[in-house]
Design a protein that fits this description.
seven-stranded mixed sheet
Amino acid sequence: MRYLPLNDADRAAMLERVGAGSIEDLFVDVPAEARLAGPVPGLPMHASEMAVERHMARLSGESLTAGEAPFFLGAGAYRHHVPASVDHLIQRGEFLTAYTPYQPEIAQGTLQVLFEFQTQVARLFGTDVANASLYDGSTACWEAITMAGRVTKRKKAVLSGGVHPHYVETARTMAKFTGDTLVTRQPELVAASDDDAVIADIDGETACVVVQYPDVLGRIPDVARIAQAAQAKGALLIVVVTEPVALGLLESPGALGADIVVGEGQSLGVGLQFGGPYLGLFGCREKYVRQMPGRLCGETLDADGKRGFVLTLSTREQHIRREKATSNICTNSGLCALAFSIHMTLLGGKGLEKMAKLSRIRAAQTAQALAKVPGVKIVNDSYFNEFAVVLPKDARAVVRSLADKGVLGGVSLGRLYPGAEALSGGLLVTATECTTADDIAALVSALEEVLA
């Protein structure tokens, strides 16, 4: 059977049914410059399986992976050591082939795993409850904004300039269809956070305030102060955590007053993998649990008094009336959640703290070394494992030159904020427990050559 077993008559009937004149009409919302005008350049239309394997192997050989070079990339995706046992365990048949726990009586293992995952996320975030995961951090952030709107009956969200721009763009895209008002700002390459500006934007129409902890420049915002200001106006505080390892050292957002905490779980158990899959984390206060998106697994006793697990809440369109649904998120990232949970279990509380301390130490050593490079200015007064520097040249060109020398030297702010001239010299540098003294020396040496 062909992959696309449709003939022209089938396609014409489908287009007529949906009221489209042509296939092109289905893509009117996609900008023309983002569409391919023809086949993918450099790829044949047809090839044998063996030829495709060889071609893909050649293409993959052109990639420079995180383990092959000094690696200082971060900005929402982090390299940490993932024990081999994590991948070994998640590839067991009972985990890898399991789908979602629609039938609790035959999915007790899956439900228990998700229950334990929720417990770990809630403890990490300092929240009363956590769900069984979402797709990724950016969609979790948007779900939190809409949840805050349901709780407060308001439609305005104030986003700190320290929130990752990809998360902001996700929110902007969705807000086009919901009518929510987003108050956003661009970060400035200064040591101080934008806490004062965020607080000044809060008014009686604000549903929520969104801050990142640590923020996109690596700075540590005053979460407790912002929480107090937001709640005084009847707004909820949403805290975004893109690097959960930071919470091995930093106080949890929930303990600082956050109402909803969301984040990206990729750095624990999942790995980088050239951009996916990712893992959305979501926790909140118990009083808001019925407005929480996704599914929630709970513990109970069966008719014989034995411990069991059930889907306690699943307020989504597949289970309840559409007008009562909290989200159209239809599932959770079960396998990635399992990887996260196994890694967390292997680490334990002390292991996570040690991992966080090593990451912080390596970052401090990197910052101290870079501060001695002529023309480099360290921005941050405070940071965990990621900090911003200002270079005397466009950071995008510097990053490319460093890559040509075999060093993945960081993420340029010009890439994250295209068109923002004031940020063009900014570079985000990240270090973790995987960073070595030789890596730092290689970065410094290559940067000195590029800037000379």
